[in-house]
Amino acid sequence: MESKNISQGIVNAVLKLGLISLGIFLLLELQVLLVYLVVAAIISLIGRPIVLFLKNKLKFSNLLAASVSLLVLGSLLFGIISLFIPLIIQQGENLSLLDLNELEYKLEKLMNEISLFLNLDPTNIEQYSSLKNFISKDSLGVIPEFLNHLLSLLGNFTIGLFSVTFISFFLLKDSHILENAILVFVNDKSEGRLKKSFEKIKNLLSRYFLGLLLQITILLIIYSIILLIFGIKNAIVIAFLCALLNLIPYIGPLIGSVLMMFLTMTSNVEADFSSVILPKTIYVMIGFFIGQLIDGFFSQPLIFSNSVKSHPLEIFIVILAGGALMGTTGMIVAIPLYTTLKVIFKAFLSENKIVKSLTQDL
Fold first, then answer.
1. Contact between residue 290 and residue 329 where contact means Cβ atoms under 8 Å apart
2. Angle formed by the axes of helices 142-173 and 62-96, to 10°?
3. pTM of the model as a whole
4. Alpha carbon 337 to chain centroid distance?
């Protein structure tokens, strides 16, 4: 009888290992599907408070609550995308009015003045200030290739949008669908603790993603005020785009600074470069860095420490570790992944001294 139980246990273990190996293999081969699942899971976590409010306060059914929540989130996304259309049109018109020869002359003059002030060799700077180095007949040949690539991206985006919407709907409607799929591989003794962990993870990650929305909102207000003060066209759209880039830790603000500087300089190309465009750009960039200081020293530590129950220094180290292991993607997913692991470790390794010190606030 014992040998039969042992053999049955071995067969069950082999089957579970086989299924896990097959799942890992499929995830590696179907990376696009994994991306869709991750994006849909994030959307469902952001929409979870809306679903709970509709179900608990307004007594909506699961189907209706999920549908309304997805409609609200979709409307917000559509509204955000529609904001960028005037900006693209305006920048296209501005660039069409741009006199490259005049801009080149002004840039060369500015670089010569800088070189004289800093006692640099002007010949080493001129080769970088000439716009002719960036425009050639050969460079125009990439235009058809770029258009084909753009059409391919639009097709993939359409498929991805439909897939993410479909998956998000069912994750909002049946919030335990992923949990039940994972619990298949867990024994009965650990099932209760894992269910509690899942609930804790969903609450923390929902607060985290809502905290990110609050962070973007604060930066949006700061950037909008700065750009409106200096009369930059499409100020709110530019501010939102730069605030959105802040979701990428450390790298995002750098990209946002370059983008804000470029859009500020091209917002009024007919004005004088030295007396109007350059001073205005400098003032805007000073405001941008003030916004970054407020975000780095006040908003982020307060929001993240309260949402995921981690110390600011702990968050900083985790983000750096994620960046070292997986680059930009690792920096983005570092905090949600670390929070998930903390909850699971607390559920199953609560007596461990290290785990106890890291999870004492959970």
1. no
2. 160
3. 0.66
4. 14
